[in-house]
């Protein structure tokens, strides 16, 4: 029988999605930096455009968040932020430019990896309508109630926001038992609620699916689709353990917080198991981290960051250690390479 300790990594979600969660906590008076550090995440790394956070790390952050929020409906409350335009990314703009709700949901399913890995969303036929079903990654099932409620609420609030209407689904179904107080659920969803259901899903009528998007535009939709496809093309074809290690290292390098033991703990496996899996992918923890450092070093030099800050972001104890490693990689000092990349020769 396959257990959690031997299950391969399932990938992760975009760093901007985790930033949204931390912004949610900060808006409620909690220290986002401290929360991220407890989960082994660097806030600065999350702001990188292609940052990815493995699901086990997201689950750890969720446990810390639940402990500090003391909010029985925090999944619903997190979803309300989906209406804030500061969280709109090119993927949301693509949905907004779709011709109607059905087209938007079809694109949501087709391009779902832009927001997170895995087959999490499925659009299924229903009598005179369709169901959008959500399947949470197994790593997130320890907080299944809040994960499912947030996902269902995001879909409903997203449809209303993008159509500019008060549209409601015919029904919303949850896998968990009904909470003691359903007042907020009823007010938010405004439809039939089913608990202890086989799946978490929202069911929509054909009338709602046919609602036109006020900002529908075929040209813009195609442009945004192209940008999303380009972003997806930069992701590995299939998440493996080396990809998970790279993603964790990306968010934990700064300040020297990236270690083999800490990375294995984030993936809910032993260090020995992690080393064995990396060997099966013909690499090692040290090789993955060094390749990432080498790549990020050039990106940080192009950003004109001070060398001491670059060294810290890459997890070196001081600038001289970074200087030595950089010269080994490129046969030149960081200052020399920076001048060349500026066009200064």
User: What's the alpha carbon Rg, rounded to whole Å?
Assistant: 22 Å
Rounded mean pLDDT is 90
Proportion of residues in helical segments: 40-55%
Q: How many discrete domains? A: 2
Adjacency order of strands in the biggest sheet = 3-4-7-5-6
Note the run of SSEs as H and E: EHHHEHHHHEEHEHEEHHHHHHHHH
Tally of separate helices: 18
Find the count of extended strands (DSSP E, 2+ residues).
Answer: 7
The span between the termini is: 60 Å
Beta-strand percentage range: 5-15%
Which secondary-structure class do the elements indicate? alpha+beta
Uncertain ranges: 1-8
Walk me through the structure:
With 345 residues, this protein is α+β, with helices and mostly antiparallel strands. It has two domains: 74-233, no CATH class; 241-342, Orthogonal Bundle (Arc Repressor Mutant, subunit A). The protein is 53% helix and 9% strand. The protein has 18 helices and seven strands. It has helices spanning 15-27, 32-38, 43-46, 55-69, 74-79, 90-96, 101-110, 144-163, 183-189, 206-209, 218-233, 241-252, 260-266, 271-280, 285-302, 307-313, 319-330, 334-342, and strands at residues 12-14, 52-54, 121-126, 129-134, 171-173, 192-194, 200-205. A five-stranded mixed sheet has the order 3-4-7-5-6. A two-stranded antiparallel ribbon has the order 1-2. A hairpin with a 2-residue loop joins strand 3 and strand 4. Helix 1 packs across helix 2 and helix 6 (90-96) runs antiparallel to helix 7 (101-110). It is globular, with a radius of gyration of 22 Å. Mean pLDDT is 90; it is low at 1-8.
Write the layout of secondary structure elements.
Layout: E1 12-14, H1 15-27, H2 32-38, H3 43-46, E2 52-54, H4 55-69, H5 74-79, H6 90-96, H7 101-110, E3 121-126, E4 129-134, H8 144-163, E5 171-173, H9 183-189, E6 192-194, E7 200-205, H10 206-209, H11 218-233, H12 241-252, H13 260-266, H14 271-280, H15 285-302, H16 307-313, H17 319-330, H18 334-342
Parallel strand pairs: 5-6
Antiparallel strand pairs: 1-2, 3-4, 4-7, 5-7
């Amino acid at each position: 029988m396959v257990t959690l300790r031997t299950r391969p990594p399932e990938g992760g979600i975009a760093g901007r999605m985790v930033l949204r969660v931390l912004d949610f906590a900060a808006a409620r008076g909690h220290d986002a930096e401290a929360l991220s550090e407890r989960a082994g995440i660097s806030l600065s790394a999350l702001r990188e455009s292609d940052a990815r956070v493995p699901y086990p790390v997201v689950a750890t952050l969720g446990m810390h968040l639940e402990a500090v929020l003391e909010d029985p409906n925090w999944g619903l409350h997190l979803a309300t932020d989906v209406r804030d335009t500061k969280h709109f990314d090119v993927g949301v703009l693509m949905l907004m430019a779709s011709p109607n709700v059905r087209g938007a949901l079809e694109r949501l399913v087709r391009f779902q990896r832009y927001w997170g890995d895995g087959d999490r969303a499925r659009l299924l036929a229903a009598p005179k309508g369709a169901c959008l079903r959500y399947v949470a990654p197994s790593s997130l099932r320890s907080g299944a109630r809040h994960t499912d409620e947030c996902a269902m609420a995001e879909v409903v609030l997203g449809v209303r926001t993008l159509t500019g209407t008060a549209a409601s689904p015919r029904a919303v179904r949850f896998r968990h038992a009904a909470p003691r107080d359903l007042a907020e659920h009823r007010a938010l969803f405004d439809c039939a609620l089913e608990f202890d259901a086989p799946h978490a899903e929202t069911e929509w009528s054909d009338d709602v699916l046919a609602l036109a998007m006020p900002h529908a535009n075929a040209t813009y939709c195609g442009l945004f689709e192209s940008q999303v496809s380009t972003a997806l093309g930069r992701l590995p074809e299939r998440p493996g353990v080396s990809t998970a290690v790279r993603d964790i290292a990306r968010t934990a390098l700064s300040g020297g917080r990236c270690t083999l033991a800490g990375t294995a703990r984030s993936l809910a496996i032993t260090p020995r198991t992690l080393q064995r899996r990396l060997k099966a992918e013909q690499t090692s923890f040290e090789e993955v981290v060094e390749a990432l450092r080498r790549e990020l070093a050039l990106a940080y030099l192009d950003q004109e960051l001070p060398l001491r800050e670059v060294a810290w972001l890459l997890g070196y104890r001081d600038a001289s250690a970074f200087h030595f490693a950089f010269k080994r990689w490129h046969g030149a000092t960081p200052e020399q390479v920076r001048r060349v990349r500026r066009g200064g020769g």
